[in-house]
Amino acid sequence: MSPGVFNLVESREKFTAATNSALSSRSCKPLTSVFTHLPGNETEKKSTLDQALRGVLVEQIVKHADVDDHLSLIYISIDGVTEGICSATTPFVLLGDVLDCLPLDQCDKIFSFVEENVSTWKSNSFYSAGKNYLLRMCNDLLRRLSKSQNTVFCGRIQLFLARLFPLSEKSGLNLQSQFNLDNITVFNKNEQESTLGQQSTEVKEDGMEVEEGEMGDEEAPAPCSIPIDYNLYRKFWTLQDYFRNPVQCYDKFSWITFVKYSDETLAVFKSYKLDDTQASKRKLEEMRTAGGEHVYFAKFLTSEKLMDLQLSDSNFRRHILLQYLILFQYLRGQVKFKSSNCVLNDDQTAWMEETTKLVYQLLRETPPDGDKFAAMVEHILNTEENWNSWKNEGLPELCQRKVGPSIQSKLVTNSQMDEIAAKLGGQWRALADHLEMKAAEIREIESDSEDVELQAKMLLVAWQDREGPQATMESLSLR
């Protein structure tokens, strides 16, 4: 073979040998040396080195090598990218291969490496090439993990993605205010199968087995003035459907049901007072047994046998009350993709304001540290209003100088978009051409909804997102 001619097989063998040498010396120098002396152009050599690195990883996985060996290889690939001898996507391809092949306990250690190197992934050399690989890798991991059994690991992945991507990354924002309608709370809907109201194990004889979760006499909560029967059980858990899909609250008949069930549920909370000792004694003992770790349950337990215990649990009560506040914030708030029909009347608004006061009162009365918890919740929800406004304004740069009142007043508001969308109707496609929207964006709008008014609003929202602070009524009229 004449000198200067690139040979794929020979080059790959040399790169493989150099990779093993680099692993032994914990240095990228052997690879750099081979890369410099091999004939061929940069693209050919980079592609061959990428294949060699992946081949060495496959050998490691087949031989059940230690996780540290996999990480050493990935470190070398990172150095290779920095030296300009391999593709910027190579470290991410190797990470994806490792996570696909290893069990979850070893994936935990690999992901710790990913977390520790977030500053590397965000650097100019890696971010553009690797962001989609990292997103896909994290989503694949989340699909393998159990939300109830691997809660901490799932949370780490979400926090990593939050650190990796900028706040304005649209793939991480729920811009269309969609709800997780698959999150259905299952409970007993057949009254004939209910055990509530029956006298179950009222008398406990000595030596009788006590089911797990039962409370002894010394820990029994104060009796509730409202009977806990199947009717209350059904109404209580039916409310979860409104928290799952708040839009149905705008329906007249659904709203009546929601108000009725809510009044009864909150009346139970109001009459069923908790004291510090009763609410926290059992939890403190459990936390001491678990080494002080916080216990979190990702899904409600809806067994009828647990109803008494749940009503006496302060964390459970806080979960329910907080759901009300989040729901009310959505119903009151200005959201881009709300239909123009999603408006509360004066009576509904008045009931919601009174109920909000009651919910905060119940939060303050719920031990431990009820006042502090209620104040913290109020602060967080106020902060959330700012994020909602930011999304409604089309995700403007957070570091930009504040726009003056005269300019701010010219920005297209949500109500103005509603009016324009109603007037446009099916003619929105003509406006799309004037706004220079891409054909792919128009197809996406058409596939997302069949309602022409909603399609028109989605067009305006997409235009506003693109234009940012320049999305004014003046610029729209010039179009």
Question: Would you give an account of this structure?
Answer:
This protein has 479 residues and is an all-alpha fold. The protein is 62% helix and 0% strand. Helix 1 crosses helix 3, helix 14 runs antiparallel to helix 15 and helix 15 packs across helix 16. The protein starts with 7 loop residues before the first helix and ends with a helix.
Topology, element by element:
Layout: H1 8-25, H2 29-37, H3 42-62, H4 67-83, H5 90-101, H6 104-116, H7 118-121, H8 127-144, H9 151-164, H10 230-244, H11 252-271, H12 276-289, H13 307-311, H14 314-332, H15 346-365, H16 370-392, H17 405-408, H18 414-424, H19 428-434, H20 439-448, H21 452-467, H22 473-478
Helix pairs in contact: 1-2, 1-3, 3-4, 3-5, 4-5, 5-8, 8-9, 10-11, 14-15, 15-16, 18-21, 20-21
Which short descriptors sum up this protein?
22 helices, mainly alpha
